[in-house]
Design goal:
With 210 residues, this protein is of the alpha+beta class. Helices cover 45% and strands 11% of the residues. The chain folds into two domains: 17-90 and 161-207, no CATH class; 94-157, no CATH class. A four-stranded antiparallel sheet has the order 1-2-3-4, sandwiched between helices. The two termini are 23 Å apart. The relative contact order is 0.16.
């Protein structure tokens, strides 16, 4: 997924053939970068997740439901402003979202009174208080409390996932990149440089302000 397509030289017909291979006859096919199409092919081969990403583009076009309720948002600061991003939720994100909820990951996002796994301790004590022994009912109860309820709560609040990065121009979306959630200023710079290598030549008008 990290391979850069900047060494490829495709004529217009070859670009459209590539986009049709990945996107078939979607109405926004000319607004998807060649670089993103190549990434989608790599993702298809490695993880078979390209369909979910394409569905998210469909959702942004009003053609399909979204994978997460978190709305698309505009980057507010350089180096990625004025581009946009949309969180994309994959099945593999279940574990990371549970980790955030229970404080195993990103503990700084929890209220102070919930840090130090106090939330998890309280949940376990509550479940044990409802059962005299470990039975099938106990297992179902603790599974619901540990996995099911937190997962759906995260989905309602806006589950975290990867980023689909796009630009807006004349009220249309131009889809440019798919990447892991940035976690640092260095990541933002890396994403910006990648976009300039892989999408700026195809859509130079999108980078006039970037």
């Amino acid at each position: 997924m990290s391979q850069s397509p900047n060494m490829l030289s495709l004529d217009v017909d070859q670009q459209r053939q590539l986009k049709r291979l990945v996107l078939e006859d979607r109405p926004y096919i000319d607004r998807v970068s060649v670089g993103l199409c190549l990434l989608l092919l790599q993702i298809r081969q490695a993880r078979n997740e390209d369909g979910i990403i394409i569905m998210e583009m469909d959702a942004l076009e009003g053609l399909a439901p979204t994978s997460t309720r978190r709305p698309a948002s505009k980057f507010l600061h350089p180096p990625l402003a004025p581009l946009w991003h949309k969180h994309v939720f994959m099945p593999r994100h279940v574990v990371s979202n549970l980790g955030v909820h229970w404080g195993f990951l990103n503990k700084q996002h929890l209220p102070v009174e919930e840090q130090g796994n106090k939330r998890l301790d309280r949940m376990i004590n509550d479940v044990f208080s409802r059962h005299d022994e470990v039975t099938d009912d106990f297992i179902r109860d603790i599974t619901a409390e540990f996995i099911d309820k937190p997962f759906w709560r995260r989905m309602d609040d806006g589950a975290t996932g990867d980023w689909l990065i796009f630009a807006q121009h004349q009220s249309q979306n131009y889809y440019l990149h798919y990447t892991e959630h940035s976690r640092s200023a260095e990541d933002d710079v890396r994403i910006r440089d990648y976009l300039r290598r892989t999408a700026m030549a195809e859509f130079p008008f999108l980078f006039e302000e970037a």
